[in-house]
């Protein structure tokens, strides 16, 4: 790879092989075969699982069908998190494909939001983008866009159209050269071992002295435990899109290149594998 | 723009320069002496040193300043000796100039000054008007003077031959003393100096006006300064109505001086024909009570300083009104001000002697916004004491030599003024009291330094010097000696010698005596206060300044911005903290992988690992999202295909979809209504060969070509509503086309580059079939994509070295990026994209008709063309309504008369003819009833692209050695022609450092205009006379070769451009004929004759496979005719290198093509790098879920 643009493509076209199996207690007419699918890392579960639903509905009794939801090793999977984040957070370092259990009953209202239609996902996605742009440009860029541009962003994600999406999204990634970066970096930090769903804070990409801040600087400020001392064995992995960027990576670069389509940089902190 | 220099002198007389790319003042170490004033131009800097001589520092260039000296040897035939040097008594000299009137033996040529050296010995010029002569260069005639021929005939009674020798200016980058022989006529030394005038005319090249003021207030003009005579020839006095103390000459025709009495003198009538001007006009000082002491002028600005240090700006100054209309007081107190290039303003503040830059000076706001101090460090921050020791030493040397004169002068002068005595005493006391503070080493240094003393002493002090009594001088000597204690011997040696010579006066009196004489001749002079303030312009006023510590910041005395280019909107690296990084980046032209940072590498590696881990074994899985069609629609206008042609409102739609193999494709539709019937036109994206932005006055238009449309010479022409919309569509269409063809990233090394007449750059990836024989891929199927930037010429080789030349002759090296210009986001690389500028001229014509009553007027006949028109006369083009070519271009100059029109002009730029349109000539005859003159105005484009400037020499042609794809050449041979016709060879060019390191000048006997190097180091070039030259013995060991072999042009044709491939040599002449050099063999690389191939050819490019490509004129398509069409020669084979016929490609409007990177032989080599690199997505696998494949 020679160019940063290739990173965007790699991020966009990241796929997680998943094996969907029906929860054994679900009542079925006949045995449900597992369903195999390549899930786009940057998309949302409910947006890409129509095929799964169709597949299992063939075997589940229609009267037993409530809203479909997914679970991995006992953890209900939140559809409003990008798929890649769910995978990195819960299932990284496990064998592939990622085995996801499909439920049609007992919707865990305490853990999950209901998702009645894709319009809800769109609303969620757009509001996240707007939130991100509020951090980056006080919301000016997204607000200056036309309705059709917003639609193009969403359609790009929904239909997995990289070019369509980025034709608009690049405007959200611009910033005045003299500033050296966005106003604030939109990011979320997820930790498995924490009760808080995610950490989010105002963080500028450039220090008051004018030098670029790094991923390490961000972590130091927000989750200092993560940074192990020199001699300690590494306790945590900091995972973005399935990779572990070096701590000296400039946070601005990460925000421009490794953000999800919702324009947030989703950072997962997971325990290091103990082998 | 290459880096340029700001020059300054500090109060100790040390000269410093600050590069626009630098971050610190560099001391001019070469200057062994202290300087009083400097005045800079881009190519040189003039200065007055403390010995009162004028010195010149010419910046070294890789192209030397060389002047051809020539003389003729004449002989006459007699029956006894044959041809011999025994001439008839009535004949010319045996050695003469070309006319025979001047006796010119070889030994009469002596170098002009010690700054010149001979380059070679005398030799005979064997080239006779583009034809080689035989027999030692003799040309024959019946008698003197007559027409000479190269052939000896039966009636040839006389013969002559030309001897040639070159001399070279050697004193570059060093301060060379301007010979002062003819300065005998100058009664007094120079006091001020100012150069400018380089914008007045371009001929002769490098012409500069240098003005100087003597201590007596007389004004002198240095005549004859130009590129080939940097020192000029003679000083001419220009009479003035009063005594001038300071003078300032602008880049154009502005010249202002300050009179002793405080008014200004403005010179009027300065023009191309009269650089010294005609009359003086007096302009009053802005302030009634304070006279002016300093003035600085630019192109359209005048700044002044009055005696109270107030700064003033003159309103309404331009070349029609050099006096301007009124003064505006400005903020700030300055001791001096200088106006540099582009009317940028520099000053030295009164309070702290810091150089200030005037921020915000633009064409529309010439007075700028605010003063900004320039606090750059100096290269040496050594303590003042050590510096003073050295300056003391050198100053002392001059002092020793000068005192003798001064002592004599003092005897002659008689003095009686009481007030002067008193003033002198007061002046002397001041340094002494300060000297009492023993810690201040600086003070004695000043007093012992003849030059500095002149700087620091006030006028009344100078007057008083010669009247100093023994008593007053004693304390001062004590001062001096007190200081010299502990300093090196040289310094102390000087002091006794000085006191021996002039026992009366302390050492710093030498200069001032002359000044005093000035006073006497002047008469009573001004009052004390006035003179004091006057002479301390740009001097360091010792008495009132606080003492500074040894490491304190520099104290500046003089600044000159005449050699320092700062654009109105360019960021100056001196003022921003990140400037260092950017300037370093700008300086390193070698292309190194920018992404060397460990973190970036890590991300790249991990991402590809991740893709492998998560996807490689699961490719057969079903994709969660099915690929579908994506449509983008919009409204546009379409130039309809049938007559009458007109713009039609249409709906435009682009449908994009993924094909079965994951490849992307699309169709574009144009929906229109014709006779109330809805119809549409469509084109497949994978058939589109090029998208071209078309210039149109009122619309934002672009053209889409397919192979079919190329054959028709009739593209689909569309116009978008706004420019933004057009660029959005162009970017999207371009990306879709590239996607459908699997092209991404930068062009390959094999790529074919071309430019259009608009300066746009297009690149095409050759397929192996392109040069296949006998059935090559037709070249109308080639896909061209645009690369950002603006170039006139682009040349490449197969190692990825690509160079371009802009319309302003700037050389650019390709950085390895792609995109830029209007390509943003994905279509452009993030790195290796830089700002690029280009400048070109727009021309309009002023036409006049003669009538018997009023002579020539702008009243034409009703049938005449517009009185202001374009070249054809068909379009009205007035100064006011003519716009730059597109909104991206901005005017950077005013309209000026263009004297450089072919055919010549009269003094006012007019060309005469019997009627419009006709052939024009430069002199009015009786038959001429019309005349015209050309006006030019420069405009500038700022864009971005993967190009970095290769300063500083402007080029007119460049060539890079083509080589096979596998050849590993450490140094890529690259030759170029400068815009003045010098042949240059670039050293240090490789794939990693495509810009190379330095130029090597290759001497020629005449200017050259085209050059090309072939695959085995055969260098061919074309001289201005239209004949060709072959450079012998060029090899990797000897990159510049050894000598030129003259090759006559085809009969009666003047060659214009050529290209050399592996072995083939093709050339184009001025009449559009294409010629092939026949008989070229390894043992006889010059070949034997020119064979005609074709006509209507504008340019030729011969590739590393000897493939021949041209830009052709007048190519007939089925719908239209095109000029400037890319064509390829078919049937070129080793045994048939001239080929058989033409294959027509994209056009018209193309201006240049280079196929010299394409060494892809058909068909066995597979194209590298164009195969699909995307390892993600798009791959449709067999159905698995539920039916077919099991895991």
From TrEMBL, chain A:
**Alphabetically ordered keywords of this record:** Acetylation, Apoptosis, Autophagy, Cytoplasm, Immunity, Isopeptide bond, Membrane, Ubl conjugation
Give yes or no: UniProt keyword Transmembrane.
Answer: no
Q: Which GO terms describe its molecular function?
A: Atg8-family ligase activity
Every Autophagy protein ATG5 alpha-helical bundle region domain range = 121-174
- The segment(s) forming the Autophagy protein ATG5 UblB domain are 184-269
Topology in membrane: Peripheral membrane protein
GO BP annotations listed? apoptotic process; autophagosome assembly; autophagy of mitochondrion; cellular response to nitrogen starvation; immune system process; negative regulation of programmed cell death; piecemeal microautophagy of the nucleus
Q: Which Pfam families match?
A: ATG5_HBR, ATG5_UblA, ATG5_UblB
This chain belongs to the protein called: Autophagy protein 5
Per the entry, what this protein does is: Involved in autophagic vesicle formation.
Organism the protein comes from:
Silurus meridionalis
Identify one Gene Ontology CC term for this UniProt entry.
phagophore assembly site membrane
- Record's family? Belongs to the ATG5 family.
Q: Can you say where in the cell this protein is located?
A: Cytoplasm; Preautophagosomal structure membrane
From TrEMBL, chain B:
Which Gene Ontology CC terms are recorded?
Answer: autophagosome membrane; cytoplasmic vesicle; lysosomal membrane
Provide a GO biological process annotation.
Answer: autophagy
Location of this chain's protein in the cell: Cytoplasmic vesicle, Autophagosome membrane; Lysosome membrane
Q: Which UniProt keywords apply?
A: Autophagy, Cytoplasmic vesicle, Lipid-binding, Lysosome, Membrane, Repeat
- Domain of life (superkingdom): Eukaryota
Question: What organism is the protein native to?
Answer: Silurus meridionalis
Family under the similarity heading: Belongs to the TECPR1 family.
Q: Which GO terms describe its molecular function?
A: lipid binding
Name of this protein? Tectonin beta-propeller repeat-containing protein 1
> Which region ranges are annotated with the description Disordered?
474-505, 1170-1191
What Pfam families does UniProt report for this protein, alphabetically?
Hyd_WA (PF06462), Pex24p (PF06398), Tectonin (PF19193)
Location of the Peroxin/Ferlin domain: 64-125, 137-170, 837-898, 909-942
Where along the chain is composition biased (Polar residues)?
495-505, 1176-1191
